[in-house]
Write a structure and sequence with these properties.
Helix content is 33%, strand content 30%. The termini are far apart. Strands 2-10-9-4-5-6 form a 6-stranded mixed beta sheet, with no helix packed on it. By secondary structure, it is α+β, with helices and mostly antiparallel strands. It contains 4 helices and 10 strands. This is Immunoglobulin V-set domain-containing protein.
Length: 203
């Protein structure tokens, strides 16, 4: 009985001492110009020293193997980061203290696609895990069709102008007719004769 208890304690100590790194998601799908968060988790102890933490995250492609994120003895090493990721990667410091590597990658590009491997080393051990990211090209959105423009009805001001011009034209014509009637001798004589005939007929 005592042997069994000692064996169980020994096995528990061995299992609890295993250092592991695991991705929270093995595959990611995103579109160009969007943002994404890659995450790994590693075994940590409350009494572990941050100066013993070393992280090396890298992208593996057919062309090259750029460095995404690097921590040496608990301190980030930004100069190790490849130009491809310059200014586009931010790490969550609070999550790192809890044993989580959270890397926010912004403005994704199609050449960010590939296999991401994060290797973590501490006083407790060394381990790594990987995930795959596929970035597709952004789909061009069709421009919305503009509605057909209908001819605008004439404004009230324009209609008023037309009415005013028409009335002015009629007034001019009437004035010309009166002028001809009053100042044309033939027309005036004919009118006087017609008036005298009417007076004779009345008598």
């Amino acid at each position: 009985m005592i042997c069994r208890i000692l064996l169980l304690i020994s096995l528990t100590s061995c299992v609890s001492g295993i250092f592991e790194v695991n991705v929270t998601q093995t595959s990611y799908q995103a579109e160009e110009n969007h943002n994404i968060t890659l995450e790994w988790m590693f075994t940590t102890r409350p009494d572990s020293s941050s100066t013993s933490l070393n992280i090396y995250c890298q992208l593996f492609t057919d062309q090259n193997d750029p460095v995404l994120y690097h921590v040496h003895k608990g301190v980030e090493v930004p100069e190790s980061q490849d130009e491809q990721f310059a200014g586009r990667v931010q790490s969550d410091k609070d999550a790192l203290r809890e044993g989580r590597i959270r890397l926010h990658v912004s403005r994704l590009r199609t050449n960010d696609s590939g296999l991401y491997v994060c290797d973590v080393k501490t006083d407790d051990g060394d381990s790594s895990d990987r995930c795959h990211l596929n970035v597709t090209a952004a789909v061009d959105q069709p421009e919305p069709q503009k509605p057909t423009e209908r001819p605008q009805p004439e404004s009230r001001d324009r209609i008023g102008l037309y009415v005013g011009l028409t009335a002015a034209g009629l007034a001019v014509c009437a004035g010309l007719f009166v002028f001809r009637l009053c100042y044309n001798p033939d027309v005036r004589e004919h009118a006087e004769e017609h008036e005298l005939e009417n007076m004779d007929a009345a008598e």
